[in-house]
Amino acid sequence: MAPATLLKYHAQDGPAEEYTHVKTESFHNANTPASPNARKARHTNVAGTDNSKDEELKSPWILHPSLVLKEDVLQKWGKGEGEIPDPDEVLDLKEERKGWHGYVEWELYPERKARVKEWMKGFDFPSAPEFQFVPLPKTNPILEGVRWKQYHYALGKATKDIPAESWLWVQKEKSPDMIHILQFPYNGEPPRDRLVSTALTTNEDHFVRNHGGIPEIDEDEYFLDIGGLVNEPKRITMAMLKDEKLFPRQSNIVTIQCSGTRRIEQIHQYPGDGDELINAPWGEGAIGTARWTGVSLKKVIKYCGGLKYPDKPMHLEFLGADTYFKQGEVYNYAVSVPWRKVKANEVLLAWEMNGQPLPKIHGFPLRTVVFGYIGARSCKWLTRINVLDAPSEGPVQKKEYLYYNSQVGKHNVTYSAGFSIQDMLVSSAIMSPVDADQIIHDGKIKMRGWAYSGGGHWPVRVEVSNDGGSVWYEVPHEQMSEKYFYAWRVWEYDLPVDAEGWLELVVRCWDNSMNTQPTFVRSAWNWDLHVTSSCHRIKVFSINRSRPKTAAKLKMYEESGIPFFPITKPSAVPLESDERYAIEMAARGGRDPLE
Ligand SMILES: Nc1nc2c(c(=O)[nH]1)N[C@H]1C(S)=C(S)[C@@H](COP(=O)(O)O)O[C@H]1N2
Ligand SMILES: [Mo]
């Protein structure tokens, strides 16, 4: 079959500006070397170069910003101008365990958290960048996360190299052409076209969503503590988890989707809350599908003698090794899911992703994978599971990932007023063509995309429209990938297109419960800009070469060697010859009526 789309011009192509990073400045003085660990990281640079000091300063993954202290703090600490107290003396932070680099435990030490809260008050951290009322920078990374780098830097040796080291893992483990939405904490999605070229996403292309740094954990030193309202609290090693005499293996194809997927559409129409991490400006790629292997959490809870109150609305809280800063305080990443989700064998403790050990960036050595739920609950770098009689009090569970009514905003928003997003709703996206493409075709345009529904639902029907959503064509089931209880389906379709000019292409999915998608972004807009589940719409400029006049015009451009694209480039040739004009006007009976 000939390709339906003959030629495409991407309006979004164009030179990205060189990304300029924050210049290195050591905490105490410019000559202090970074910690041995960061130094080692530099020498295993992807480029393999032996970095001189100058090279180090230029290297894009040295991410040590300068810090600004507040005046009253200088006085309080008895320091002179420009002198910064040593965080290692004041805070004395240490990594929690041998073999767990990048892990500082916060939740078990309330007094440590309190000390950091006081310390953080001493700095003038930059505020969040405005990225909603202005166009996004054409850089890659798009946003930097300067203040998050500074937060880590401000706490001294236990955390200051984490931004640099995490960026190194991005380079090592992710595809070189990822779209870096936020450099640190790292958030990135793959190129659109490639994401839907296979039903299973490669580990290199799977999107990444981080709230903090990437810990490096030695599998042999790894263990997981299970406690709280469980009958027999236990410490479990990887060797125990992998022992099939103790726990049967479970393997499932599961889609993980961040509830920020397609947020950029909401931002473009109606800006909302503007934290560059919490509300990162995702495109359609914050979704991926992998075969995850591990053991069902239900079996592990059984091994711990079961829950103390299995009939109460219990939650299982997952804690991660990474540090999360929120409003001047520190936390370990923490989220929870209800016990009934675990009971259904829909929560996996996974150590394998597509038959490979988990990449570091995806949670090595162990993460949860919560089927059909928002990605946030699939906790990476798992340190503990706490059985609670209520949802986690961690900020990610309690204060984020909330879905508000559209009239709620900064003036009246409250945490309790939002839905806590758990099951992902039915959604879809067109991944090719992309918005503003100018397409030469012979009456059909090839479309490709994904369709997904959470909560154990699956896409049954995908429909596309070439007229903004009045006429819908069904994508034949043969052109959709296999169905699974917990995964997306990728699809492709040669959409009949007769009309020329700007058209609005639309997709919508129907799941097995006959749920479908809201019509417009506005129909489901919400203050925190979550789950952009409305029909996905793109504008494309159609040039239908099966029309003889269009074909002739295109030929003329080709023969004269004048580029046709972009369509907005003013034409250097007359639209019509004088001879032709005279013939056409005569045929129309001239411009004006005779009487
Ligand atoms: N420990 C930890 N787990 C985490 C996160 C995190 O920042 N820290 N991010 C969550 C969010 S919001 C999402 S969408 C998924 C993304 O998983 P991935 O990065 O493997 O694609 O991880 C979740 N698990
Ligand atoms: Mo997420």
TrEMBL record:
Residue span, Moybdenum cofactor oxidoreductase dimerisation domain: 420-540
Domain Oxidoreductase molybdopterin-binding: from-to ranges: 211-395
Entry keywords, A to Z: Metal-binding, Molybdenum, Oxidoreductase
GO molecular function: heme binding; molybdenum ion binding; molybdopterin cofactor binding; sulfite oxidase activity
One record GO biological process: sulfur compound metabolic process
Record keyword Metal-binding present: yes
Protein name according to UniProt: Oxidoreductase molybdopterin-binding domain-containing protein
GO cellular component, one term: mitochondrion
Entry cofactors: Mo-molybdopterin
InterPro entries assigned to the protein according to its UniProt record, in alphabetical order: Ig_E-set, MoCF_OxRdtse_dimer, Mopterin_OxRdtase_euk, OxRdtase_Mopterin-bd_dom, OxRdtase_Mopterin-bd_sf
Upper classification of the organism: Eukaryota, Fungi, Dikarya, Ascomycota, Pezizomycotina
